[in-house]
């Protein structure tokens, strides 16, 4: 992982809030910045954009120093090659959609333009909206325009501050596929702030967990999201694991879709996902049970050999949502979590290193298909 | 029609009345751009700053709203007179003394009408909010660029209101101009003073002609301000809600001129 950005910000705010973070974000992919309200996510993003000036700060992006307060260096926002998507679209009410899109595009030197106007319009499906006034757009349409407008400055870093938070569920579902496509087609790193676990699990490759203005954990999404000591890492994050899988094909006879992951082949109720496409699969801890021998003559299709990595017994984390033991499994390289009872833990004499079978009763694709 | 001075529609007016009318219009036409030039940076600063001095500045700007115009006029007279500091500086520049002259009227009018321009502009700039300007900054626009291409167009109704009210208010002023300009026909005798003179001489018909004209003009100006402020739709974004003619939220305590003394709402840091 080559670091493209290294940042350190220290900023005190009234009411006892202090942002004190030291972080590294990778060169590509989406880094989800996750944490409860008031944990400093937005402030961190604003510091990166230069909208907020932390009195103690050092920020280096792609080898360029954007801020170094020790030397009094501070690059103002309009000189930073960032794209920023705010929680509210913030379209210029006095300009039609086309001129909104052109606003940043025209201010970007022609030699630095890497995103063509037509390209952004097409990516976000904006062609029919171009002559419209912002007031005539729906919430989801406005946010799509805002995303395209940010991309048209050909940013070297895309910052998204809960771009879906102000939208209703329908509009959110309308935008997510666009974000996923950008995720796949854009080469630039993205910092994506969210307080919705599902969004982060769906979009992010890396995770930066914030709490009370400090970094609680950082690293690859799958690794950080299954760390037992951090769970549950979000208020509404159900205990579970995310696994990366590839669609192998569909079974017309039994109406199933098959996906391969590191631990074997998953069978799911038929899904529209295209064969060959990469998908993220969510396996909740409560849907995974453990067996010491491979269960025979069972209705469960998804059974994989695995090895116990770690066990968090109840009591160690009495304050967390679950009072039952959590077991972390390694299934051929993929991580799974299983929630079992204390009684099973004792009866089966489960311990780290023990080979078991993970019996998975429910699997969900995270992406829309 | 008005510039012609002696055109058909005004035929019924005596030339003695046309003179103050022409002078008053000239005064308002010179004062309004000066008001906007002085009021825009002041309103912009007041709408953005967290400096503690702003309350003192806001209070000073709002003084003409509560002071008798004669008080303002009196101090201007003292200040601009030959022994006043400003008057001396004025003469040192080789300029005609502003007292009892057109330039004195302009200075008095600008000060007297300033709150009527600063307050709608400040309200308009505040209602633009931080978001569009921050968005513009992330879209590579520098400070002047942001101001010219985002803040001003979004606050355009505030500019219209400020210009209209500033113009209309200058037309109607009396006390300050009387104090600093006196009542010199053709030089400093403006409409309101002419009306006063007519009434003093019991020339009610002439007083009616001028008064009715001013009444109609003022009504039309205010009507235009109110109508224009309602008609234009805004991008639905919170906190929107109905806005008063001066670009201030209608349901707030600041719905009326003056918006002083309750401080404007500040955005979340």
Shape of chain A: globular
The top-level CATH class of the largest domain in chain A is Alpha Beta
Which stretches of chain B of 5+ consecutive residues score pLDDT under 50?
1-11, 233-269
Specify which chain pair forms the largest interface: A-B, 29 and 24 residues
Q: Would you tell me the structural class of the helices and strands of chain A?
A: alpha+beta
N-to-C terminal Cα separation of chain A, in Å? 30 Å
**Helical proportion of chain B, percent range:** 55-70%
The number of strands of chain B is 0
Q: Count every helix of chain A, treating DSSP H or I runs of 4 or more residues as helices.
A: 8
Q: Identify the quaternary structure here.
A: heterodimer
Largest sheet of chain A: 6 strands, mixed
Q: Please state the average pLDDT score of chain A.
A: 87
Q: How is the main sheet of chain B built? A: none
How much beta of chain A, percentage-wise?
Answer: 35-45%
Radius of gyration of chain A: 23 Å
**What helical percentage do the residues of chain A reach?**
10-25%
CATH superfamily of chain B: MetI-like
What best-fitting shape of chain B do the alpha-carbon axes yield? Answer: globular
Computed structural class of chain B: mainly alpha
CATH architecture of chain B: Orthogonal Bundle
